Structure prediction request, 773 residues.
Amino acid sequence: MPLVLTEEQSMLRDSARGFINEKAPIAHLRKMRDDRDATGFSRDLWKSFAEMGFAGLLVPEDFGGSGLGTVEAGIVLEEIGRNLMPSPFLSTAVLAVSALTRGGSAEQQAAYLPKIADGSLIATLAVDEGAKHKPHNIAMQAVRAGNGFKLNGAKALVVDGHVADLLIVAARTGGTAGERGGLTLFLVDPKAKGVSIERTVMVDAHNAARINFDNVEVSADAVLGEVDQGGELLDAVLNIGRGAVASEMVGLSEEVFNRTVTYLKERKQFGKLIGEFQALQHRAAQLYIDIEISRAATLKALQTLDQDAAKADHAVSVAKAHAGTTATRAVQEGVQMHGGMGMTDQFDIGLFMKRARVCQELFGDNNYHAERLAEARQY
Amino acid sequence: MSDLDQFRRETRAWLEANCPPEMRKPVANDDDVFWGGRNTKFASEAQKVWFERMRDKGWTVPDWPKQYGGGGLDGAEAKVLREEMAAMGARPPLSSFGIWMLGPALLKYGTEEQKAEHLPKITAGLIRWCQGYSEPNAGSDLASLQTRAESDGDDYVITGQKIWTSYANYADWIFCLVRTDPTAKKHDGISFILFDMASKGVSTKPILLISGKSPFCETFFDGVRVPKSHVVGTVNRGWDVAKYLLQHERAMISGLGDRSVGRPLGQIAADSIGSDAQGKLDDPILRGEIARFEVDEAALACAAERAVDLAKAGQGHPAFSSAMKYYGTELNKRRYEILMSAGGIDALEWESPRSKEGARPRAWLRTKANSIEGGTSEVMLGIVAKRILDLPGA
Prediction:
């Protein structure tokens, strides 16, 4: 499959770009942040996003969606990244939908997917517990109790956790921390007794929460997929999340780069445009090359996820690691080349830097994914 | 089953039946590479058989027209063949500057007579070509070249010196940049011309490099007579041909680091350094460096694949080969720094059968030229800044 977008995919990109540029430019994020908005996103905007068909992009047509693939989800996230749009797209339309379509029973799918597609239900995935992403180290316990399970533990960096109507929670029903076996995914109502949710105001002004589970009782039909076999499902969903976040970082990197190159062509010092200085030209050229390579690696990962998901680990880690390194470099050069203006809150460049830092940590940073490569190659 | 799937199945079966097992092992030394030419010798029977079978199939240059001895494959089929050859580790049957550099320029700028004369001899491995570009005072500033071609009846008489001519001492013919109008501005008086290295007045002198090898020569022209019909493209417009050819050269050099068929770098390192109780390389910082390298290497391979696909879709940027050349050569240098560190003191031996006569340190030193030859890294970044980013004054 060629590593270029098809005509339909280019049209999707144009439509997402048009919508987000108009309805959710960076001013939208600023307003949410400055107003200290309690939800951190606009439900009305999410409804219109759903009406455009974006919320149900990955939802099968039988459940009211478009039944498209990870490549298409990545295209939308790239546009979200350009405008730093606060939106439940990643948590709900990508992570939750991927978990439900891959692991859900017919009843579970029918109960949630149509509501996600029409924009009325926000859902998310709760995985991380410690400071760094280590999904197989999950310690949260799910112990059999009566006909169901009792959940105890704590989750962090739950994207959109404080506004979600449905939590997909990874907990341990067997095995010990470090093992992939013994993990199980549960569908949990955030209003259930024993669930306490703390919204964490993050550096990037995007949504996240810490969630505590204190003897939370769920019934047996809350299990998503198979008991003790959730590790495989979780890894598959995380890979899709990684590919999606890599796309967001590519969009973010390219936007910050375009703004920086524009600045190099406008700003004068020593009687010259600063873009005439070779020291800056060469760094800009290096960054351009990094971004193009990240873009190719990311598209490869997304295509692999759609065509042969079981063999996507390598391509996904390459994309997430490369795009993470590139985004870090892009925002650093962005601030540096904008000089003092890059340090001001008034300029948007700093907002890109903050979002890039969060995207790096989401589902494993560049070190995590380089390590995954080394382990796979057994050295 | 689509036509392409069918083609893949047939290709795989044909390669399985026709590629000798010896030709599926990674290239270990210079002898393993077959360059063709008048004085060529095959290093082994397997090399000969493999070359002849691929030549007869038209697959020494799969995507050239059949009339010139190519395979006539379209872009998608050529990609399938590349993928299938890579999957079984099949060596290229023929390496040649004629294939990588001159051929594409002839196909675009050559007359029908020139194509019919030269292309079949390239695909059949009969003529080995070298490239006469750089001069002692024209390196990064290539267009300032001074080799003169003076008009004399139906001929040009060529006098001057080239340098860094790869394998000039083995080459049969040269494609050469010469100044046909000394009064014009530097880019406007250059022509692209072809001639036989056996012509009277041509001499070569190998240059000993830090690797202890001499892949490059100084090449001298002392009144070499060349028919005017050997100019490719328009007289005095040779710079256009030269630039077009350089794009192909850069694409070729950026791919030199692709060793994905060999053993993983981490395991090569483990051979000499050893592993700890968990099976991890017993040098955690080098292990991290290798992992980061592998991320970048795999990502570059995606970008190379995408560059071909973009070009096919008419969305490529002509200067993108400079971007790839920069990244690919810097990466290959990094690879050999890692290999030297991994080899430790074993990688320091220069002469011994144990070290295959210093194969690794010589290869390491050779890579240092990657970011100089075909345009330095600094020139590549300048091209990206000017032609792609449109930065001022670049």
